[in-house]
Specification:
The chain is mostly helical and 468 residues long. The chain has 16 helices and 9 strands. A hairpin with a 4-residue loop joins strand 8 and strand 9. Helix 11 packs parallel to helix 14.
Length: 468
């Protein structure tokens, strides 16, 4: 269980940030010099060098988003120029990509962050540049929302989901984080146009997808099946596309459908926390127009966020770093592993530092959301986030090697497929990085840097929406 009793303060954690940004700048420059477009999108490192994995194109936005965050954190104009020019040169195909569920990862991380910084005055204002970013964000939300499977549920609710690259039968827990693409597109007044000029509400699709994910990918300890533990998350749910009926739990990257793949859990914690923050910015009128209501949405999303956050706290070692799956078989050989810090060099099961970085920012956002209504719970979540951040911002998790292209060490991509590199003398994968781990470490660092300085929180939806 994460030990929050002696959690560091935000001020203490902030003292580590200069070293984080220094390490991140070094790694980002190394990758920038080495990477060429013909190599494909960098995904994870082998022997400290980024390589590709042609499963799906979902990480390029993190590659250039890292540079944009480094400009925000340090003012390094070379990083801004890199992130900005690379977005123009390489991200258009991701805006129009009809084959993935990852638009919120790729495009909000690039076009979204650039537009946010322009609105904050961190980048000089240029009307046409801003319109370029806005157009990309409008289109990415609509393209993502078009990847839609309607489903049939016992109570007759009008639900569906944005389906994954696996096909229309597949609902991933990851995809709740791509609802940010629909959110920014909607708040800019955009809609998805369908057959016979049908105007499809992106806001309604967010609500439908979030409810489908809550019903089928999250457990609440209500006896749904023999493994129904409150806060447990399944990576994937499978539906019959002939009639939209739910069939079974599944997983691609977890150990089993009846354990919890911890990065899947992290997407749920972070995704619902930030959607709760975003929902506060929407009017009652626009919510009601979709047939939903604010009170029910807030209660449901908060239940999901808190259940999964509590599960994470209870099933993670004391320093905030989870092992890759709560049911990983090797954990049985590790004694009371939840009562001590995680060991990335153990003989049995990898940790996943990327899941820690994602969940930490979800816990921080959730704590911010709850600070007035549930101050004790809010304090616990924020303390757990700070414990995790303190661990991630130092060795052995922060990459300090002069030639390593990664920022955050000890992540895991696909343990069942054994894609991750195992170093000589080791029995499990460790010591390597991934693009999403690097990005979410920087996102966490920038978020804490801003709040430590007394500035407004970093939120994906704080965008300059119009030039008029």
């Amino acid at each position: 269980m994460i030990e929050t009793k002696n959690a560091p303060t935000l001020k203490t954690v902030a003292t580590a940030l200069p070293a984080v940004f220094e390490a991140a700048t070094r790694a980002t420059q190394l990758l920038q010099k080495a990477w060429t477009p013909d190599r494909g999108t960098p995904v994870y490192t082998e022997k400290g060098v980024y390589t590709t994995r042609g499963w799906t194109e979902w990480t390029q936005g993190f590659q250039f988003g890292n540079a944009i965050y480094l400009y925000e954190a340090t003012g390094d104009k070379a990083m801004l120029e890199y992130g900005r020019s690379a977005t123009v040169q390489h991200m258009a195909s991701h805006v129009s990509h009809i084959g993935v569920h990852d638009h919120g990862f790729n495009n909000v991380s690039t076009y979204g962050n650039l537009l946010r910084l322009m609105g904050e005055g961190r980048i000089p204002h240029n009307s046409w540049e801003a319109e370029f970013y806005r157009l990309a964000l409008k289109i990415t939300g609509a393209v993502q929302a078009a990847r839609w499977t309607p489903i049939t549920v016992p109570d007759g609710a009008d639900l569906g989901y944005v389906y994954t690259f696996n096909g229309p039968h597949s609902l991933f827990s990851d995809t709740i984080r791509s609802m940010r693409a629909l959110a920014v597109s909607h708040q800019m007044g955009h809609v998805l146009m369908g057959e016979q000029d049908q105007r499809i509400s992106l806001l309604k699709r967010i609500f439908q997808h979030a409810e489908a994910t809550a019903r089928y990918n999250v457990y609440f300890g209500e006896g749904r099946d023999g493994w129904d533990v409150r806060g447990r998350v399944v990576h994937e749910s499978i539906f019959n596309t002939n009639n939209g009926v739910y069939r079974c739990a599944s997983t691609q990257q977890g150990y089993t459908p009846f354990s919890t793949w911890t990065r899947g859990l992290s997407w749920i914690v972070a995704g619902y926390a930030e959607q709760l923050q975003w929902l506060q910015t929407r009017s009652d009128e626009e919510i009601t127009a979709t047939g939903w209501n604010r009170k029910d949405l807030e209660a449901r999303w908060l239940d999901v966020a808190c259940a999964t956050a509590d599960f994470h706290l209870e099933n993670t070692p004391t320093d905030g770093i989870p092992y890759w799956d709560t049911g990983a078989p090797g954990l049985a050989h590790m004694g009371d592993y939840l009562s001590r810090p995680a060991d990335p060099y153990n003989q049995y099961e990898p940790v996943d530092s990327s899941a820690a970085a994602i969940t930490a920012q979800g816990l921080w956002r959730l704590g911010s959301y709850l600070k007035d209504s549930q101050p004790d719970r809010a304090a616990r979540y924020r303390a757990a986030a700070l414990v995790t951040a303190q661990t991630l911002f130092s060795e052995p998790y922060l990459s300090t090697g002069a030639s390593h292209q990664g920022i955050l060490l000890h992540s895991i991509y696909h343990q069942p497929n054994r894609w991750d590199y195992v170093q000589p003398g080791q029995t499990i994968a460790n010591g390597e990085s991934c693009m999403w781990g690097d990005y979410h470490l920087l996102e966490l660092a920038v978020m804490l840097q801003r709040e430590a300085a007394g500035n407004a929180a970093q939120r994906f939806f704080d965008l300059q929406e119009s030039t008029t």
